[in-house]
Amino acid sequence: MNKEANLLLYQIFHLNLAYSSIPEKDLPTVIKDCYWPLLNLIEDLDVKIGIEASGYTLEKIKEIDPSWIRELKSLIKTKNCEFIGSGYAQIIGPLVPAKVNEQNLSIGNKVYKDILEIKPEIAYINEQVYSQGLMNHYLNAGYKALVVEWNNISLFHLDWEKDWQYYPQYAVDQQNKSVPIIWNNSITFQKFQRYVHREFSLEEYLAYLKLQIGKTPRFFPIYGSDAEVFDFRPGRYDQEAVLRKGKEWERIKTLFKSLLEDPLFNFVLPSEVLKATKSKKSFNQLCLESPEQPISVKKQEKYNITRWALSGRDDVRINTECFKIYKFLMKIEADPKLLLIKNKYEEKYKINLWKELCFLWDSDFRTHIEEKKFQAFQKRLQRLFDITEKIFAKKNLSKKRENHQRSSLSKSKIRFSQSGKLLIFETKDLEIGLNKERGLAIDFLVFENLLKIPVIGTLPHGYFQNILLGDDFYSGNTIIEILGQSTITDSDRELSLSPETILYKSDSVQIKTEIKISVGIIKKTIIIYKKEPRIDLFYEFDFKNFSPVLFRSGIITFNPGAFDKETLFYSCFNGGKIPDMFSLSNSQPITTDPVSLSISARSALGNTNGILEVGDKDKSIILKTDMADLATLPMINFIPLKDSFFLRVLFSLGETDETSLLSKRGEGNFKCQFNLSIYPKIKNK
């Protein structure tokens, strides 16, 4: 039905048979009760609908009910149904390396071509998690537009016009590349779900839609979320809406009939939104990200990037395993001989190793995952690790033995002294003071070729006049919060010197301490290198009955007197080939405080190659970790002050939210190791 209307409605139903809480045995029911009614709507009402699914979901549907695939292909040809792509698996792009994002989109396109005989031109960003580094991947994969969420992205862009949400815009990256964007809206799709679940009437919902009508025609996303929540309940939450089976798709049908009959409304396909070239409110060039929100996520604040990285069902461990496999694959592909062996293994085991890694990095294995599904996932993860490790083992690696002998020559290259509570070490490149009364907290760290004053260290109580910052802020420490207990930290423990405390190696000196806390032991080693301006912080955690609300380590406090506030920045890789860079000169405060008693974090950085840079126009500090050793995520804590600032980086090893299975945590032992390298970067030299 074609008609002039003031509100042009578009919708995208997201299909996902990897849904974390849906058991495999229920997948045929999902297709029958959720996916078939969706296709029937298009055919019965002649209504325009966008459908998005991962390549994996299409493979599963084809396996279970190939007739549904045939019907979808037929409806696509009628021009009333438009297929939207997303990749092979529902990967959270800012949390995986660039190569994995490339493979996910490439393999997804191949599956779309094989099953649907099309190559989609519009991509729905997985879980609506966007970072600047993702844009280039989608452009290279042939996508011509992206679907992203308006609500959270616009939150930190107060200069944006409210009406821009009703029109397509351009997303622009730091290389001035751009891509058209079509807005999704979390409030809108939640409203739609609440109407369908009978939380309010048809009349109330129509009244809400009429509030969106402007003086001239404009677009509005009536829906942009899960199809599995209608006439089915995935079982993620205890308080899901009461299911009246067979009634909810009928309720959607009733709504669509009313909208089709009302001259104020008309349905369009998502691609038709891009034809809004006449409005002056269309196609503004926008930077979607901000220093306060480098990675945007859909829905309310509790729904943030940490749910797939730091909480959930053992997220840190399984992400670490995925990074290990990724590291193996990258090394294998860099060696022609190993690449030949890889190809033989893939043929032998009938497996595409990159495709399998994409599957294992799917977001649904990291949240409300059903038990049998998680056990099957664990087996596939171990199998892929074993295969890639076995291939890599074919390479004859010879390791150089490190000389651990002490010698007066090695001692002479690092000068050591004590001054009260400080252990002071000096090389030709750096000087560092460690506080033996505060668990070897870094009191000061000077890189001689960078600046003659400390760049990081301890800011004592009273350094800031602002009462909100009336505390001691250490560097190199660990903070653990456990429900019902006082904050646990390693910075309130005094070190007793012994012959084993300071060890001289051929290339470094190591200062060791062992700190006993209520849940176990923290072994901490500071490594100072002789021939390069670098220190390493190495932690070994050995805990029992460990159920943290939050677990953060490698905390670094920056000296505001060492950096130019006007050019202050941070940068890291968030799934892209180049780092995302953010200026802090005009940034609002960035907090690491919890959202609520049950949600311990607001956000974090993807840091997908393990390198975080903080600095100004002349100099910067590199904080480097290896994600294949431990997939920790850094957090930025920044407060702008008059003529100064407060800036810390904290590396999170674990957070809590509603995806955390607390009943499973705290059982048995917890052991892990974390290493952080710190070194300078001098610019314009």
From TrEMBL:
<dbReference type="Pfam" id="PF03065">
    <property type="entry name" value="Glyco_hydro_57"/>
</dbReference>
<comment type="similarity">
    <text>Belongs to the glycosyl hydrolase 57 family.</text>
</comment>
<dbReference type="GO" id="GO:0005975">
    <property type="term" value="P:carbohydrate metabolic process"/>
</dbReference>
<feature type="domain" description="Glycoside hydrolase family 57 N-terminal">
    <location>
        <begin position="24"/>
        <end position="280"/>
    </location>
</feature>
<dbReference type="InterPro" id="IPR011330">
    <property type="entry name" value="Glyco_hydro/deAcase_b/a-brl"/>
</dbReference>
<protein>
    <submittedName>
        <fullName>Glycoside hydrolase family 57</fullName>
    </submittedName>
</protein>
<dbReference type="InterPro" id="IPR052046">
    <property type="entry name" value="GH57_Enzymes"/>
</dbReference>
<dbReference type="InterPro" id="IPR004300">
    <property type="entry name" value="Glyco_hydro_57_N"/>
</dbReference>
<dbReference type="GO" id="GO:0016787">
    <property type="term" value="F:hydrolase activity"/>
</dbReference>
<keyword id="KW-0378">Hydrolase</keyword>
<keyword id="KW-0119">Carbohydrate metabolism</keyword>
